[in-house]
Specification:
By secondary structure, the chain is α/β, with parallel strands linked by helices. Helices cover 33% and strands 13% of the residues. It has helices at residues 5-14, 33-45, 59-65, 77-85, 101-106, 130-134, 145-151, 154-164, 185-197, and strands spanning 24-28, 48-53, 69-72, 90-95, 114-117, 139-142, 201-202, 227-228.
Length: 246
């Protein structure tokens, strides 16, 4: 899932709040695809991660991925984060869950910290304490990768993937349980560049291929090429083979 999860993680960590090396960032959904990528990208950036999960059984799993602190969510999250990080200042929190989870993350943020919402797997409205916004001057903003692709310049996309290139040496299971890194980086880069520019693109023969907007074609990896005439509808993954980008 090199085309979505690592870029999302990279931009969440670099495009919103300036984080010097050694800074802490906190995220929930840490065992998700974006969560795993965030741990990996944070290591590349010299950042430390506070990782929040919803089940005890995934704590050791996220620690094994490189998470510096891994805790199960709960109303006392802030106290436990303070103890585990040595009362470190945290200026960025990443929320992919929604519901009450953002409220718990914001309790861990320092004054003027930023909460970024990039997903809502709970399918429930976001709950936050108004005091966090009024008295602690915290802010909330959203992030959607497609919006960034649509406005980014080609050289910005190239630079992003240059930063992410070391992740190709990391076993795919550390980024996503179904991730697969076996695509041609040059073709993928030209694809996302074309996506940003909203123009058609035909991939090389070795790239995962589809000839129509479908996710159910079991032969898609053996087709010779594909053309994207409406790139914004193709930002996703082929469901037939380990999340190969299409």
């Amino acid at each position: 899932m090199m085309g979505v999860n690592p870029p999302t993680a990279y931009l969440l960590l670099t495009d919103i709040v300036k984080l010097p090396r050694g800074s802490w960032v906190i995220q929930n959904g840490a065992n998700s695809g974006v969560g795993r990528a965030t741990v990996a990208v944070a290591k590349l950036q010299g950042l430390k991660t506070g990782n929040v999960v919803r089940r005890d059984e995934v704590v050791e799993e996220v620690k094994a991925l490189g998470g510096d602190v891994v805790l199960v969510d709960g109303p006392d999250l802030a106290q436990r984060v303070t103890a585990e990080t040595g009362n470190a200042r945290i200026t960025l929190a990443l929320d992919g869950v929604s519901d009450a989870a953002p409220m718990n993350l914001m309790s861990c943020l320092s004054e003027s910290g930023v909460l970024v919402s990039y997903g809502g797997v709970s399918r429930k409205p976001m709950l936050v304490q108004s005091g966090s916004l009024i008295f602690k001057k915290q802010t909330i903003r959203g992030f959607w990768l497609l919006c960034w692709y649509q406005s980014a310049k080609p050289d910005e996309i190239t630079a992003m993937f240059d930063h992410l290139a070391p992740l190709r040496r990391i076993p795919s299971h550390t980024l996503s349980e179904q991730g697969d890194m076996s695509y041609r980086a040059g073709d993928r880069l030209r694809f996302v560049t074309a996506l940003a520019a909203k123009r058609s693109f035909t991939a090389a023969a070795s790239e995962c291929s589809v000839t129509q907007p479908t996710l159910s074609n079991p032969e898609c990896r053996r087709l010779p090429s594909f053309t994207v005439s409406a790139p914004q509808t193709f930002l996703g993954f082929c469901a037939c083979a380990k999340g190969v980008p299409y």
